[in-house]
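Lecture notes, unit on protein representations.

Consider one protein chain, 234 amino acids long.
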Amino acid sequence: MLLPTLREQVLEANLELVRRGLVLFTFGNASGISREKELVVIKPSGVPYESMTSADLVITDLAGRVIEGTLRPSSDLPTHLALYYAFPAIGGVAHTHSEYATAWAQARRPIPCFGTTHADYFHGPVPVTEVMQDAEIVSEYELNTGHAIVRAFQKIDYGAIPAVLVANHGPFCWGHDVGDAAHNAVILESVARMAWFTVHISDRAEPVGRSLHDKHYLRKHGSDAYYGQVKGQK
């Protein structure tokens, strides 16, 4: 089999989405890319998670042609490929229909940063795409979904906000690798839930101030980050 290590990582990321309650039945998908080989490993379409093995995963090239696998790849493959093409620093993508993040997507509202939990992971509000036009939907829908996401990040750093809400659809997240993408999907659902509670406790709640937002994000992700341990040290 091609890319056995990446296969295992992609399988684990998909199963993590299930363990964390972010997907139901066969909803959702995660993929990982080998930039060196220019190949993508992705969940097969409609296969139950409980019976899925690494051998069931599908490998495609960057044009979406199946290179290895007997099953159809996820129907969202063109969206993943569009993100890999437009965001060259990412190594994995995760898509779910998790309840709270999807609710914000259905409301067509970005998720404001109300506090430091959000700020630890997303350096700004999580954006929502524009509503897709009928012509985009009836022609190459999944690819055009990817284009809609990319347009939403024309003035936003995709590395600083590794998530998006597709209007009336749901969230997509990405990361340095597929495990990181799945991790970000879990965090996104958590902050979406907290934001929902916040606006229902007070419809006058204000986003966190810029200084506090920057402090929490940069202490984890900035050039002088000091959160956590230095690699190799305990």
